[in-house]
Amino acid sequence: MTHLLHLDASARPGLAGKDQHGSHSRHLSHRFVSQWRAYRAQDSIVYRDIGQNPPPYLNHDWIASAFTPPERQEPWMKDALAESDQLVDELIAADVLVIGTPFYNFGMPAPLKAWIDQIVRLARTVGIDETKLPEPYVPLLADRPRHAVILTARGGIGFGPGGEMAHMNHLEPNLITALNFIGITRIHQIAIEGQETGGEVLAASVEQALHQVDVLVAQLQMTLEAATALPSNQRQTEAV
């Protein structure tokens, strides 16, 4: 059975095309999950609406606790890390991470950044090997293949790879850097653009993105099904 972790980071609670002022990124992520369920109802899906219920920002207690070895942590330190531990556990269990996120002011929404800060954890998702200086970091989630699907909605046009405004896009590059750092390197990206332009430009972008979502669902399900048929010693090297 495959495990999905589905995150929505938009401040808009509804779905574009259905609710007034609805979210296009939520539209994409919910399309992905609904298509996935249609063909693999047996798979488990954990959903977090971090746009409406954001993780806490890091504070002094969190930092002091996260950098204290577990055997030396006091009870209040374990309490300070309780939500972070739950978020990390959800991510570790996932085979496919699905992130629906808007593009806010050239980067990711604050709730998504808060989630990233909570799951990049020493000894949980990243280790340190001091014999490998000057790059001692060890991605602990590289223990098995995991996929991340980044579904983005942008108000403007040309922010994708190769676009005229790509140099101003600090959403996907930032997110991919963080995921790669902890060992999630199989990244898939789909975006809607032109929300501010509207009309035929937006409609064409939405239609194209929805089609790409359907194709990606089929491809990923085939990839994961093929991987499970391999001997365990070969699964580590399989990728899309």
Tell me what the structure shows.
By secondary structure, the protein is α/β, with parallel strands linked by helices. The protein has helices at residues 24-39, 60-66, 75-80, 82-93, 110-119, 172-182, 199-228; strands at residues 3-8, 44-49, 96-102, 126-128, 137-139, 147-153, 186-192. The chain has a five-stranded parallel sheet with strand order 2-1-3-6-7, sandwiched between helices. Strands 4-5 form a two-stranded antiparallel ribbon. The protein is globular. The two termini are 19 Å apart. The mean pLDDT is 93.
Assembly classification: single chain
The percent range for strand residues is: 15-25%
Overall structural class, as computed from helix and strand content, comes to: alpha/beta
Instruction: Evaluate the radius of gyration.
Output: 19 Å
Query: How would you sum up the global shape?
Result: globular
Percent of residues in helices: 25-40%
Mean of pLDDT: 93
Distance between the termini: 19 Å
Helix-strand blueprint:
Blueprint: E1 3-8, H1 24-39, E2 44-49, H2 60-66, H3 75-80, H4 82-93, E3 96-102, H5 110-119, E4 126-128, E5 137-139, E6 147-153, H6 172-182, E7 186-192, H7 199-228
Parallel strand pairs: 1-2, 1-3, 3-6, 6-7
Antiparallel strand pairs: 4-5
Helix pairs in contact: 1-7
What labels describe this entry?
7 strands, two-stranded antiparallel sheet, alpha/beta, 16% strand, 38% helix, globular, 240 residues, 5-stranded parallel beta sheet
